Description:
Elements: E1 7-17, E2 20-26, E3 33-35, E4 38-40, H1 47-59, E5 62-64, E6 67-75, E7 81-89, E8 91-93, E9 102-107, H2 109-113, H3 121-129, E10 135-139, E11 142-145
Amino acid sequence: MDRTERVTLTNMCMITKDDKILVLNRNDPTWPGLTFPGGHVEAHESFHDSVVREVKEETNLTITKPRLAGIKQFYDENGDRYIVLFYIADNFTGNVQASNEGALTWMTKDELMSHQLAYNFDRDLQVYFNEQTYEHLLDGNRDELF
């Protein structure tokens, strides 16, 4: 029995400063709305290095000591597994500068929740904001939090 499968590895990082969260308003027409910075893990790149790199590319901030908060997994249109590693960072240097990914804004949690979020991001936020929740699974009709 073959136990291998195609997997896409990605990350997303909630960056906090005092009571504010750095939010990305995505330009992507296939997944518009508010979310957090992040992107793909490159071949032979550590998960840590990938989230540091993606945050730098999308925000101009250099994060240190990002903490793994949980994961999301789903299957893409080809039936391949897609995994998103959720990180939180509150240590960073630099000045915020938007990229072609979209505009960046510091918001409180309440402000974030009252805006147009990217599709299904409201469920992802439960992994970030609820310490008892560590995984968001989407598989067919399943949309579960663990």
